[in-house]
Amino acid sequence: LLSGKQHDEL
Amino acid sequence: MNIFRFAGDMFHLISILVLLLKIYATKSCSGISLKTQELYALVFVTRYLDLFTDFISVYNTVMKLVFIGSTAAIVWCMQWHPVVKRSYDRELDTFRHYFLVGACFVLALFLHENFTFQEIFWAFSIYLEAVAILPQLVLLQRSGNVDNLTGQYVFFLGAYRAFYILNWIYRYFMEQRFSRWISCISGLVQTALYADFFYYYFLSWKNNAKLHLPA
Fold first, then answer.
1. What's the chief localization of this chain (chain B) (predicted)?
2. ipTM of model
3. Alpha helices, DSSP H, located in chain B
4. Pseudo-torsion of CA B154, B160, B164, B166, nearest 10°?
5. Cβ of A2 under 8 Å from any chain B Cβ?
6. Which end of chain A, N or C, is surrounded by fewer C-beta atoms within 10 Å?
7. B166 touches chain A (CB under 8 A)
8. pLDDT (tens digit, 9 = 90+) per residue, A1-10?
9. How many contacts (CB atoms, under 8 Å) link A and B?
């Protein structure tokens, strides 16, 4: 789902 | 998303709600550092630049809006609310936080993941968050006593960061592609800054005494 997304953390 | 990160986000949310509660319930912001709140507002604005460009999840977007909105509300209250602003400890909250902003920005220019506008501001926000609590901790030391809502505010902020460290450990073992050294190192520095506060908080809780930080 979040692969490749750099910053999935808040 | 893992339980450590979710718990961390909830502690972060609780810390901000505790602060909003204190301000609205007591109509006072004594013991709260406006400079720390300004730094946090800057942290959220520079970190969530991708708010409208990248959609990650409803949860992610909603939390970003809540963090930006609530911190902006706290800064607004402490500066413009006719009743609240009178209780702001202006003469105690004298930490020169502009140096923190400058130092973090210079560091972000050298240490970042990609040399792009968004990445540099993201790294800046990570470094700034690590030191944003300093004006608040200095204010607490100067004002000596810590009223329990402000103490809880710092406590929950520390818990949020501690759970994020557990989240990074978890992700390190569970995901082969894990490289968030900027967040990890900065998060460790940030949590270390809370360690001494936690120590005095725990002592006061154990002795059931008023939290008193050594001057």
1. endoplasmic reticulum
2. 0.81
3. 3-26, 34-47, 58-80, 97-110, 117-131, 134-143, 148-174, 181-206
4. 90
5. yes
6. N
7. no
8. 344 456 889 9
9. 24
